[in-house]
Amino acid sequence: MLSHAREVVGQGVEAAQKLRDLVAFLGERPVERVKTGQTPHQVIHRQNKAVVRYFPPRGPSAGKAPVFISMPLINTWTVFDLLPGKSVVGALVDAGVPVYLLDWGRPGPEDRDVTLADLVDGLLPRAIDRSMRHARQQHGADALDALGYCVGGTFLAISLARQPGPVRRLALLAAPIDFHASGRLSAWADPDTFPLDDIVDGFGNFPRELMRQSFKALRPSGEAAKWKGLWDRFDSESFRELWAAMEQWNGDNVDFPGETYREYVRRCYFDNALIAGGWTTAGRPVDLGAARMPALALAADGDHICPPAAAHGLAAAWGGPVETRTLKGGHVGVCIGSALPKALLSWVAEGAVLRDEVQA
Amino acid sequence: MPQAPHDAAAFDFGKLSNDMYQQWEQAMTAWWDQVLESPEVLRASGQNLSVMARARRKYEEGMDQGLHQLHLPTREDLTRVARIATLLEERLLQVEDTLLQVKDQLDGMERATLQARVEAAETRLELRERLAELQARIDRLEGRGASVEAAPAEDGGKPAARKRGAPGKEA
After folding, report:
1. Which of A193, A208, A233, A313 could form a disulfide with B46 if both were Cys (CB 3.0 to 4.6 A apart)?
2. E strand or H helix at A72, and its extent?
């Protein structure tokens, strides 16, 4: 009985000690201090708030096509370069792949009239063009491979279907195409209950704070799971650093340009127009069926924002050959696991083989 | 002496807290799933958002009117200036696009000109070699002609069979 009591007290003391350490850790403000986006890079192009960041390869790059990456518009780009060893961009450049990353920046109130056509017909093709010019000069490249994540992938697919430019192959990561398979988000985006016009007319841009609260509400237990994860793995210094980096990124949403948001939600979530068709913007149809390049649709099995069915909807809409794969992880977690770099490096290697065959 | 019963099931604070957490999470997720997908909740939430957005708009309009009466720049004024700067940047980028296209065309023309010059130089070189070859043959023919002209004395004064410049099989 006494030893039992001693054991209980011992565990209680351990827990109290751990709690004290945790409070001390949080007192050091790790979320503000952690440094993300450390992979060396330079800005090669700017338009409005958007920039193209060039990450030079750190390994032999012969035969590997540079990769152009379109990031989501609702968060910052650093989720692809959180920490050394937890970086999608880092894994690519270490394998000798030159990377051009489109960071959409932070739209301000003056960007509320920016339309979806401005992005898919103007900003994106221009960013791809400048990346191609740089890659030709630096690496003698004659084409790019393109990767889009989340809504950045959806916009990239729309843009490439309208003007493929120098892009030879496309990969989408957790990018919704069949929006009516988007789980709870598609249930929320009901035209009868979601006041889209009032929001855009009232707020201008879709506010980042509202975006953050919406994502939190998508998975209400997420907040508790976050703290439990820290408690369970508090002894690992690398985990503590990763936790702080994720917290920093999660809390750093950006506003979504109002008119783009209006068209995006109306056409994609209300009408599911990428699958159903009938969408015209800037006088031209939005038709993924017009695309001819091969595409890869990557999804994460635990994704509650873009479930695999929504991402793999590309196979039903895309005009070129489509391969679908499902990786382990959630919508964001997939970016920090080891499965994504492996899948992307395998995709890059397939591209090199394809290129050799074409040249032969 | 019998063994203490607690030895068989030692107390584990970690396991207990895990079990408690999982039970709580399951119950809470189930409850939230019902709440967050209930049409009534979605309708109320939509109405709430709508009211917030309209109130925000009214507030902005009120602020703008107040600042306007004080002859101070409003948010709308500043936004307009920033938008003009963005449009100017877009125009500059369009000029840059055009210049880059012209540069591409010039590069293409330069490549074509270079290629043509290389081809012309190669042709000239070929012609020069051909001329040299012809000159050598002519020289050989002249040498043969001279030997033929020298021969009549030995052949009894017959004229030469071929004259310089006349077409012959050897040419």
Report:
1. A193
2. none
Q: Are B75 and A109 in contact (CB < 8 Å)?
A: yes
The crossing angle, in degrees rounded to 10, of helices B13-36 and A2-27 is 60
* Residue the block writes with tokens 């990239």: A156
Q: Which amino acid is at A288?
A: L
3 state SS of A352: helix
Query: Which of A11, A109, A198 lies closest to B13 in CB terms?
Result: A11
Show the tokens assigned to A21. Answer: 């350490």
Complex confidence, ipTM = 0.80
Of B4, B29, B53, the CB nearest to A202: B53
- Could you tell me if A348 and A67 are in contact, meaning their C-beta atoms sit under 8 angstroms apart? yes
Note whether A193 contacts B42, CB cutoff 8 Å: yes
Reduced 3-state DSSP string for B57-102: HHHHHHHHHHHHHCCCCCHHHHHHHHHHHHHHHHHHHHHHHHHHHH
List the A99-103 sheet strands across, edge first.
Answer: A42-47, A50-55, A99-103, A67-70, A144-149, A167-173, A295-300, A322-327
pLDDT tens, per residue, chain A with 360 residues: 677 788 888 888 888 898 999 999 999 999 999 999 999 999 999 999 999 999 999 988 777 899 999 999 999 999 999 999 999 999 999 999 999 999 999 999 999 999 999 999 999 999 999 999 999 999 999 999 999 999 999 999 999 999 999 999 999 999 999 999 998 888 899 999 999 999 999 999 999 999 999 988 888 888 888 999 999 999 999 999 999 999 999 989 999 999 999 999 999 999 999 999 999 999 999 999 999 999 999 999 999 999 999 999 999 999 999 999 999 999 999 999 899 999 999 999 988 776 666 655
Q: Is A54 left (phi over 0), alpha (psi -120 to 50) or beta?
A: beta
CA dist A52 and A66 (Å) reads 13
Task: For chains A and B, count residue pairs whose Cβ atoms are closer than 8 Å.
Answer: 98
Q: Do B36 and A217 touch (CB under 8 A)?
A: yes
What distance in Å separates the CA atoms of residue A280 and residue B155, rounded to the nearest whole number? 99
Distance separating alpha carbons of residues A13 and B45, to the nearest angstrom: 45
CA dihedral B138, B141, B146, B148 (to 10 degrees): -160
Q: Which domains does chain A have, with CATH numbers?
A: 34-359 (3.40.50.1820)
Inter-chain CB proximity B86 and A187 less than 8 Å? no
Residue A188: CB atoms within 10 A of its CB come to 19
When scoring B52, B81, B88 by the number of chain A Cβ atoms within 10 A, the one with the most, hence best to mutate, is B52
